[in-house]
Amino acid sequence: MSEHKTFYITTPIYYPSDKLHIGHSYTTVACDALARFKRMQGCDVMFLTGTDEHGQKIQDKAADAGVTPKEYVDKIVATVKDLWKLMDISYDRFIRTTDDYHMESCQKIFTKLYEQGDIYKGEYTGHYCKPCESFWTDSQLVDGKCPECGREVYDAHEEAYFFKTGKYADRLLKLYEENPQFIQPESRKNEMIAFIKQGLQDTCVSRTSVKWGIPVPFDPKHTMYVWVDALSNYISALGYGNEKYDEYSKFWPADLHMVGKEILRFHTILWPAMLMALDLPLPKRVFGHGWLLMNGGKMSKSVGNVVDPVILCDRYGVDAIRYFLLREIPFGNDGMFTNEALINRINSDLANDLGNLLSRTVAMCEKYFGGTVHKVAGTEAIDTELETMTSELLGKVTADMDSLTIPQALMEIFAVIQRANKYIDETAPWALAKDEANRARLESVLYHLCEALRVCGILLNAYLPSTAPKMMEQLGLDASAIDVEKAAYGAQESYTVHKGEALFPRIDVAKEIAHLKEEDEKRKAAAEAAKKAKEEAEKKAAAPAEESNVDFTHEAEISYDDFCKVELRVAEVRACENLKESKKLLHLTVFDGERERCILSGIAKWFKPEDLIGKKLGIVCNLAPRPMMKGKYVSEGMIFAADTADGGCSIPFYSDDTPVGARIH
Ligand code: MSP
């Protein structure tokens, strides 16, 4: 790879609706390893990450927290940046979709697409939940009800702008065919092709009901619906459509968009279609990796099975967590996160294989040679085997990183580490040390071990950026030794080692699991207590309103016989209308099982005729008919209704299987 080759890699921009979890770290750590590796190869790298800050969910979260959406996201974004700092994420740029320059780019993109006819005004059809003021699509409903509050939803229409995704279907299929690299892993490509072939719909790209978003410049009652805003980040961050940066022509098209599999569709259909419409080059590769699963499901805040990366890094060290994420899950597939798997990985690979190799080697150099060993002429077959494996490592790891088989790259490095450990057992330096005649051979053995460790250290730097310098330090080298140019076996002539702390102390598995279980139980108990306290507080907050509203003045006592004189029945509302003459009254025509009767009821303030038509409600049947509205109407009954805490009115409705006319007792 030439000195000046550029490499542009992106993570998804994360929703700052909550603190990020280990699943988000997974994508970001993978990108970081790739970015570091490319830098090590001499590439001019742009590694972009950031946050996707608009939309209804964040608007709601901010409202719940009693702050503005911007105040809300500012707080979370600070924790995101802290997390990336903690995890040694070497991003070059962090974009926030609330940044002025990004909003400017989006508005330009939207306007251009509208002016050239790729965006048009239409009508969005969905379901509307009144109390939540939210639109939902068919698939978002839960049992046909609002996914937020579980209440009934209504069919609704909203004016909206649409992007002509459908127009690009054929060009997208051609793109996949001509660029087999474009969608990866290969297996996911077929899902995208099938999705397009079933008929590609245009994409709704604006909302009038969501206020927290980038205004459509030529029709500001609309805000851009999140994906156009979000996807544009990949070019606005380089300066497309703004003056903030001037790196678009240097870095675009992206070499790699790394995303989770659930958002691959947006990146391989909507995004390239948008770029085709803008007449811009397309990204070279989009990789959809699998999910980190917990208890069988995708980790997610709403399910409550998230793992906090900060807690893990504090307990086991950042590099241990990075290693686990990169090594444990076949890249592209789903993988389970378990405490047992994490601890076993740390113990077997990092403490036993890598840590032991370094500490044994350094200890023997000190013990037998006062710390300094040199290259010694002459090699034995066993040395050549270690040398060949180590020499081939750079090529293998490079190939793995190019094909994004990251765990395989680590396996190759650890194969050399394991081979070196075996080499110690086979050469038995402690036996060689017993005879002065073997001194040159002993030095040669230790030199070979140092060389293997040095080359592995250089390569490991992309994955374990705080461990690699520690390895070099113990080998007596400084940070400048971490350089692929120096990765050739035999390039270092001598070593003066310094014993340091164990790289990864061994963990007592049984004790640790017991500790984690205890912690987990404590956390669960705390969460349960917090939930209870919240419920109590909500109950308390609701109580005074109810109390203050309820009328506790009582009527005179009546006998059971008197009560039996009141004829209560279920009636069905067959018609209902507002009265021209009164704002308060609704005119109901109800069927009591034998006949229709007219009832005038003072509930027009709270109910529309369509709320009642077809419903079954309770009525008093034998109330003497009462002329109303100057005798224009005669009301022949009363319906059951109760005052609500907020001064409204609530009517109990009977289920469909209650017969009309049934007596109420
Ligand atoms: N904001 C959008 C992305 C817009 S990109 C133009 C979004 N954000 S998100 O916060 O929900 O982050 C989604 C990404 O986080 C996934 O695509 C994936 O990369 C990562 N992950 C979130 N949970 C994950 C797991 N449990 N496992 C692995 N990755 C996960 O979608």
UniProtKB/TrEMBL annotation:
Quote the record's binding site residues for Zn(2+). C129, C132, C146, C149
Q: Where is this motif: 'HIGH' region?
A: 14-24
**Record flagged with keyword Metal-binding:** yes
Name the major location.
cytoplasm
UniProt keywords (A-Z) are: Aminoacyl-tRNA synthetase, ATP-binding, Cytoplasm, Ligase, Metal-binding, Nucleotide-binding, Protein biosynthesis, RNA-binding, tRNA-binding, Zinc
Q: Which cofactor does it need?
A: Zn(2+)
Biased amino acid composition, Basic and acidic residues: 524-541
Q: Which Gene3D superfamilies match?
A: 2.170.220.10, HUPs (3.40.50.620), Isoleucyl-tRNA Synthetase, Domain 1 (1.10.730.10), Nucleic acid-binding proteins (2.40.50.140)
Record motif 'KMSKS' region, residues: 298-302
> Which Pfam families does the annotation name?
Anticodon_3, tRNA-synt_1g, tRNA_bind
Query: For this protein, what is any one GO molecular function term?
Result: ATP binding
| CDD domains per UniProt | Anticodon_Ia_Met, MetRS_core, tRNA_bind_EcMetRS_like
Domain TRNA-binding span(s) in chain numbering: 562-665
Catalysed transformations (reactions) = tRNA(Met) + L-methionine + ATP = L-methionyl-tRNA(Met) + AMP + diphosphate
The enzyme's E.C. designation: 6.1.1.10
Q: Which domain of life is it from?
A: Bacteria
- Where does it reside? Cytoplasm
Note the SUPFAM superfamilies from the entry.
Anticodon-binding domain of a subclass of class I aminoacyl-tRNA synthetases, Nucleic acid-binding proteins, Nucleotidylyl transferase
Functional summary from the UniProt entry: Is required not only for elongation of protein synthesis but also for the initiation of all mRNA translation through initiator tRNA(fMet) aminoacylation.
Query: What quaternary structure, including any partners, is listed in this protein's UniProt entry?
Result: Homodimer.
Tell me its family. Belongs to the class-I aminoacyl-tRNA synthetase family. MetG type 2A subfamily.
- UniProt-recorded name of the protein: Methionine--tRNA ligase
Give the species this sequence originates from: Faecalibacterium prausnitzii L2-6
